[in-house]
Amino acid sequence: MEIGWIEALQEKIDDHMISARSDLDNYRYDSSFGEYSPEAVVYVTSTKAVSQVLKIANDYKVPVTPRGQGTGLSGGDLPVHGGIILDMSQWPASVEIFPDDLVARVSPGTLTSVIHAEADKYGLMYPPDPSSSNISTIGGNLAENAGGPRGLKYGVTKDYVLGLEVVTPEGEVMQTGGHTIKNVTGLDLTKLMVGSEGILGMITGATLKLIPKPSSVQTVIAAFSTMEEAGKAISKTLTSGILPAKIEFIDQACARAVEEYEPLGLPTDMEAIVLVEVDGHPTAVQEEATTVCKIMKEVGGTNVFLPQTNEEASRAWQARRLVSPAIAKIKPTKASEDATVPRSQIPEMMVRLAEIRDKYNLSLVVFGHAGDGNLHPNILCDERDQAEIARVEQAIEEIFHAALELGGTLSGEHGIGTMKSPFLEEELGPVGVDMMKRIKEGWDPNNIMNPGKIFPDKGQRLILSRRLEE
Ligand SMILES: Cc1cc2nc3c(=O)[nH]c(=O)nc-3n(C[C@H](O)[C@H](O)[C@H](O)COP(=O)(O)OP(=O)(O)OC[C@H]3O[C@@H](n4cnc5c(N)ncnc54)[C@H](O)[C@@H]3O)c2cc1C
């Protein structure tokens, strides 16, 4: 008698796996919404194991959901159709630096902050810096094309990937790209894999581009009594001839939440706080920081502050990093969005967000990477209050519509996953969606890789309430 797929995995795979229902509970969630149980989790630690699992899954047509550290905010690693979770978090961290090539080769389960620290030892920098870099894997960053504050000047994950090792849905191992900065041989499968949210294959290794670490950085902090002034300060800075490494924005509710969570000295009586970091040669940095201070003051900024020590500057950035955990204390449920607009539209988007907040009577706070238009409106609510959740769903829909109307996008960095798929066609149009589906069908004829992501199921709409299974 033919054995079942779980028995086939148990027979062939040496890596640890679990399949008892009582052991699978932790894998029902990620950092977004929804609750779906896998039928097995395999803790893969080698390319060979990934290949063996995918061969079995493909033979038996069993869904496979890749999972890094589960910090994704769009539902990407929820096993919506059951099957196998391939957990990459136990894969030993490995960062091999090639200083003469300014390149790093990394394993998929490596935390991004470990790559930052290793590059730093050679006076080099891996610029992509998601705020989750201490708790997310490079595999997850690659699959989501993660961004972060430094995206303003340095770009995002895709801008630093030279090559990948990929296991295809049929279990074959493929190398894409290479070790060189320039490479135009054939179609760019590296870029296609980056941001593919685990629907095209497993990323089991990456070659990353590094750059020299800037020799000097300077932070500037300013507070504003209106959002409008903060918006003006951001656009005036961006058109002044200076390109800061980061321009981040925190609204008053976020500042208050951070100060309650861990007092770090943020002003709590102002509508908006803007944090800027300039980097480069020390002389240029001092000049640019002085200009930024001047601009902030000219448009009405108060409490304009230039930290003089590393400790002072790190406190400011620590405050920015704490926004997410701090606002999570306000109410039990947090719906995080990352609708992104052209930079000129930031002030209008702020107006629209305030209107949506008032219309649906919700606690909506905003922070984010204002320098590149990537705002993070967060709605704080209580999942147990069905009436409130229904208003949140409507508000999120309006946020997406507003971003698209203003020439923006559904997601600047968190991905589509399950959360934004119902709106995909509104941004891409039917031809764009169809072309993407054809690529998916070509790569993964049995649709085993992360099914139920990016492309909406028929009639699917945004539903935040968890789908509780028995
Ligand atoms: C507090 C907080 C702050 C955050 N800040 C940022 C930010 O500043 N910028 C930003 O971009 N995001 C941010 N995020 C979102 C999240 O951290 C990123 O999306 C991150 O890249 C996910 O990494 P992960 O290891 O947790 O992957 P997971 O969440 O486990 O997986 C994410 C997606 O990648 C797929 N995947 C994972 N590993 C692989 C692999 N090896 N091969 C193929 N597919 C794979 C999964 O199937 C899933 O679709 C934040 C999240 C939190 C909780």
Structural class designation: alpha+beta
What is the name of the CATH superfamily of the largest domain? FAD-linked oxidase, cap domain/gating helix
Shape: globular
Rg from alpha-carbon coordinates: 22 Å
The counted number of beta strands is 18
**Range of strand content:** 15-25%
Q: Provide the helix percentage.
A: 25-40%
Tell me, what is the CATH class of the largest domain? Alpha Beta
The CATH architecture category of the largest domain equals: 3-Layer(aba) Sandwich
GO molecular function, one term: FAD binding
Family: Belongs to the FAD-binding oxidoreductase/transferase type 4 family.
Domain FAD-binding PCMH-type: 34-213
Cofactor: FAD
Summarize the structure in words.
This protein is α+β, with helices and mostly antiparallel strands and 470 residues long. It folds into 3 domains: 5-87, Uridine Diphospho-n-acetylenolpyruvylglucosamine Reductase, domain 2 (2-Layer Sandwich); 95-212, Uridine Diphospho-n-acetylenolpyruvylglucosamine Reductase, domain 3 (2-Layer Sandwich), CATH 3.30.465.10; 216-405, 3-Layer(aba) Sandwich (Vanillyl-alcohol Oxidase, Chain A, domain 3). It is built from 13 helices and 18 strands. Strand 17 (363-369) and strand 18 (374-381) form a beta hairpin. The structure holds flavin-adenine dinucleotide.
